[in-house]
Design a protein that fits this description.
Chain B: It is found in: Membrane. The complex is a heterodimer of chains A (830) and B (140). With 830 residues, chain A is an alpha+beta fold. The two termini of chain A are 36 Å apart. Chain B is built from three helices and seven strands, in the order αβαββββββα. The radius of gyration of chain B is 21 Å and the shape is elongated. Classes of the chains: A alpha+beta (830), B alpha+beta (140). Strand 3 (400-401) of chain A pairs antiparallel with strand 1 of chain B, so a sheet runs across the interface.
Chain lengths: 830, 140
């Protein structure tokens, strides 16, 4: 199937080439032929995806891909994420999107179909070759997702039984077990895939010598990629914010940078393309930028997948030995693009007119340049590992490492670029809609300027922003919002919403800037450790301890809150919220448990004692953290943690969302919970009603009770079963422990009571009927605890809202530009 | 001079500033001995050191000490030259820490004896590797 897809892609490329070059009379048949082959390609590409999903869905663990990315415990929507967890799957996703885009283009284009589809099919051929998995001698072309496990692993089991199929897979990386991971990769890959469209139009334009005309059809697609890729990036950021525990949404990780840089360039190219449409300048710049964005997407793929990032990134793929192939892919399209544009270079119309300072072209050009510089500043240090690899390939030694504090390093530039951009959009938008000279400009800008100064002053005094840098950012952000809103209102009054895309997107930019400033600049760690339990080294005072240790039930003061850890919980199928592990007894089957108490939530009974319940992913524990203010429970957070056998502790934060801030809590370390190590026996002799110290706890022995029946034991005539009732006090909690003592003939049985939270195991050793004295034996282990970190992120909602506004702006712009293209096409001009 | 030239020069100037600061801020991979020399010379810039955890003959990690409140720890690291060094990290022990094949610490010497890491990167056994698989297959 993969081979059919590969061959059909090549045939399509060739036949579309023919179609484009042959004389008019033969075109019809060539087009038919090409289309048939593209359909064959489409069908085979889609069936590859279906087959792979089928393998995962039906747990065909004899396949390596299913074995290493899926497991039986996964719910269906996470099986979807298993699909693209591996490199091969993500390539298939990419191919799949390209196929859909290709089909769409075939049916929406007239004269562009031929040349555009040549480029498309070539790219498809390269992509499919990545999953070809053909080995010729030492040369490996692609890595197939359909390899059988026994062909990959050299386990001795296959010598004994070649048909061995593992019972379960190793499962999905728990970090990816998140709903955002189900939709983030497809969105991002659609973004990546769609960058091909403007590139294909450009190549087609250069090839068929339509140097100017390619802009119109390409423009809506460029905006489309910018919005989809932007959305994918934001989803990734949001995923990082809600799942990863680095305490933020953006970490300047190479993988993140690799998607951010092409996005900047795409946005820059949108601007130059729009300028060209308005005033026939900046064509060459547009060409360069459109090529660059596509090449950068390929370069990003190379960075992430070649393993070259190695120890600089937390989440790059492992090397599958495909880096050479990726490089060929990269260079092939780079050379084709350079060759075609070089050939056309002198024929490309330019304007010799010097752009005046009061022209919109000037300002848009400066804006695009700023975007370009931003991209350059990020891609340069990100490529340090590549630089090292190149130096080493030539026998040199390079020990350059990326900046030690990435966040600080990138922020110090990107922030100022952001400010510059914000100011440029404000001024630029005024130029865009009106011819300006000095006085007109002054008049237009003075009102928004004063308004934004006032608003800024208000915000500064209300939110106490006293840092000079942050004041400037705030000012720039507000200015953009105010200025663009002014324009937005004007546009809406005069004409339709269709033209409002630009100002909407720019308002979004201003909001993002302000949101980033507050949520990062004023992010406040509230879990500062004041326990004084340090090594007491002199320099250690300089370091802030940003984690606190919470013993179960023991309150701790944290800034405005008193925080109490209350124990572990699980999620159950069919039960809202969380259920304490103390009410559950794990069964041998995966994700099954026995309810040891009735499960009641908000007065409604969901399960009775003794019912079998389904746990939603048994590995995940939710740690109940209560936040009190003035002795009153304000809210409870349940950050998740999963001790993973291959990856260690995987934590996902939980946040309390307020309108003006988020309180973000995540687990850094937990008590291991498997089989506890019990300490030495400690004996106690007590009579009913007596209060005594059980280890560290004050405990009341309430008395013994003779049982008529005992769960799990068939009581016979003459048996005596006594249950001891103990009440253990731990801070504000009372915990009941009821060990049972059983006498049958000469034999005695002891059923201990265990509480993992307190780390207590107690059993009745003996009862002396004369004195009514009970002898208890207690073993203690580690009391349950969590180490956690809590942060306050102010005004982060402004950031998310800003991104939504920006995406709305993009959507409006796509609609407008696509509409233009359709009108022109229907007039028969394209 | 034309405006275009001024802008061009401006862009080039900014680009150069970016390149220079990138080089200036770029850290470097060092060994503990060169790191110590740097610290002795008053250079406090954070650097990267690549190495692994100290292990005894059986392969268990030695020298790992967790503070009483479990929010920081020290460990002994051996760099690629074989130099042993105590490293302090002001965060709880990452759970897969002892299983890591290779660690990269980013930080600097705070005192003569102690290297303080601002950040630790770990390379853990990949699940694509065969030896890992053997374990899993054997237990199945």
């Amino acid at each position: 199937m993969v081979i059919i897809a590969f061959v059909s892609a090549i045939v399509t490329a060739w036949s579309y080439y023919k179609y484009t070059t042959v004389a008019e009379i033969e075109k019809q048949s060539w087009r038919k032929f090409s289309r048939i082959f593209f359909y064959i390609h489409a069908v085979s590409a889609i069936s590859i995806a279906v087959v792979l999903f089928n393998i995962i869905y039906n747990f065909r663990f004899e396949y390596f891909y299913a074995y290493s990315h899926a497991s039986r415990a996964l719910p269906v929507h996470y099986m979807i994420s298993s699909f693209w967890e591996g490199q091969e799957g993500s390539f298939i996703l990419w191919i799949f999107w390209d196929v859909l885009l290709g089909l769409f283009l075939i049916h929406t284009n007239k004269s562009w179909e031929g040349p555009v589809m040549v480029v498309f099919s070539l790219v498809q051929a390269f992509l499919v070759s990545m999953i070809l998995g053909v080995v010729i001698g030492d040369l490996k072309i692609g890595s197939s997702p359909f390899i059988l496990l026994r062909d990959v692993a050299l386990a001795p089991i296959f010598d004994i039984n070649p048909d061995f199929v593992p019972a379960d897979g190793t499962g999905l990386n728990p970090l990816l077990q998140n709903i955002w991971m189900v939709i983030h990769p497809p969105t991002l890959f659609l973004g990546y895939a769609s960058t091909l469209v403007p590139f294909a139009y450009l190549m087609a334009g250069l090839w068929t010598k339509r140097y100017k005309e390619w802009i119109r059809p390409a423009l809506p697609w460029t905006i489309f990629s910018a919005s989809i890729l932007g959305m994918g990036i934001i989803m990734g950021a949001y995923w990082a914010y809600v799942t990863l525990n680095f305490g933020g949404y953006w970490n300047w990780d190479p993988v993140e940078n690799a998607s951010y840089v092409p996005w900047l360039i795409i946005v820059a190219s949108i601007h130059t393309m729009i300028t060209f449409k308005k005033s026939s300048t900046a064509l060459k710049t547009s060409i360069v930028l459109v090529i660059l964005q596509f090449i950068l997407v390929l370069y990003a793929t190379f960075l992430v997948r070649s393993g070259v990032l190695g120890d600089t990134s937390v989440h790059s793929f492992t090397d599958l030995g495909l880096s050479g192939q990726l490089l060929i892919y990269l260079f092939f399209f780079m050379f084709v693009a350079i060759f075609l544009s070089a050939r056309a270079w002198k024929d490309i119309p330019t304007s010799d007119k010097e752009a005046s300072v009061y022209s919109r072209e000037f300002w848009v050009f400066i804006g695009a340049t700023t975007l370009g510089l931003m991209a350059f500043q990020v891609i340069l240090p990100t490529s340090i590992p590549v630089f090292n690899a190149i130096v080493e390939a030539f026998g040199g030694v390079s020990n350059v490492a990326p900046p030690a504090d990435q966040v600080e390093f990138y922020t110090k530039f990107q922030l100022w670029f952001g400010v510059a951009l914000a100011l440029l959009t404000a001024v630029g938008q005024f130029f865009w809609w009106k011819k300006m000279d000095k006085t007109a400009l002054k008049n237009a800008l003075v009102t928004p300027y004063i308004v934004s100064l006032l608003v800024t002053a208000l915000i500064i005094s209300l939110t106490k922003v006293y840092d000079f840098t942050y004041m400037i950012i705030l000012m720039a952000g507000t200015f953009t919002i105010v200025a663009n809103s002014t324009i937005l209102v004007k546009i809406l009054k005069k004409s339709s919403l269709k033209l409002a895309g630009g100002s909407l997107a720019h308002i979004g930019l201003g909001m993002i800037l302000i949101g980033v400033m507050f949520s990062s600049g004023y992010s406040d760690v509230i879990s500062i450790n004041n326990s004084g339990l340090t090594y007491k080294r002199d320099w250690e005072d300089e370091l802030n301890k940003e984690n606190v240790l919470l013993w179960i039930n023991k309150p701790l003061k944290m800034k405005d809150y008193d925080v109490v850890y209350r124990g572990r919980n699980k999620k159950l199928k069919g039960v809202p919220g969380y259920v304490s592990v103390n009410k559950l007894e794990e069964l041998d089957q995966v994700n099954k448990a026995l309810a040891t108490e009735d499960i009641v939530v908000d007065g409604e009974k969901y399960f009775s004692k003794g019912d079998e319940v389904d746990i939603i992913l048994n590995e995940n524990s939710y740690f109940q953290i209560e936040y009190y203010q003035d002795q009153e429970l304000k809210f409870t957070l349940y950050p998740m943690s999963q001790p993973n056998p291959t990856m260690g502790l995987i934590s996902s934060p939980d946040s309390r969302h307020f309108i003006d801030k988020d309180l973000y809590t995540h687990i850094s370390a937990i008590n291991s919970y498997g089989d506890p190590e019990w300490g030495d026996d400690q004996g106690y002799e007590v009579v009913p009603g007596e209060q005594f110290h059980l280890g560290d706890y004050v405990t009341t022995f309430e008395g013994g009770e003779v049982l008529e029946e005992l769960e799990g034991v068939n009581l016979q005539e003459g048996d005596i079963a006594v249950k001891a009732h103990l009440l253990v006090y731990d801070n504000d909690r009372e915990i009941k422990l009821d060990p049972v003592f059983l006498i049958r003939g000469n034999q005695i049985g002891k059923i201990p009571a265990i509480n993992h939270d307190l780390g207590v195991k107690i059993q009745v050793e003996n009862i002396s009927p004369e004195t009514n004295q009970f002898v208890f034996t207690m073993n203690s282990s580690q009391k349950d605890y969590v180490v956690m970190k809590a942060l306050v992120k102010p005004y982060i909602n402004v950031l998310w809202m800003g991104t939504i506004v920006m995406l709305m702006g993009f959507a409006v712009a796509i609609y407008r530009r696509y509409d233009e293209f359709v009108k022109m096409r229907d007039k028969g001009l394209e | 001079m034309k405006k275009g030239h001024i802008i061009g020069l401006g862009i080039i100037a900014i680009a150069i500033v970016i390149i220079i600061t990138s080089i200036g801020d770029a850290s470097s991979y060092e060994s503990f001995s060169t790191a110590k020399e740097m610290a002795d010379n008053g250079d406090e810039d954070p650097i990267h050191v690549v190495g692994s955890l100290k292990k005894d003959a059986v392969g268990t990690v030695t020298g790992l000490e967790v503070s009483e409140d479990k929010t920081s720890f020290t460990f002994t690291m051996v760099d690629n030259d074989g130099t042993e060094q105590q490293v302090y990290y002001n965060e709880p022990v990452p759970a897969d820490f002892v299983r890591s094949e290779q660690v990269v610490v980013i930080g600097a010497y705070k005192s003569q004896e102690m290297f303080v890491a601002d950040k630790i990167l770990m390379k853990c056994p990949s699940k694509y590797q065969d030896n890992e698989f053997r374990e899993v297959a054997a237990t199945n």
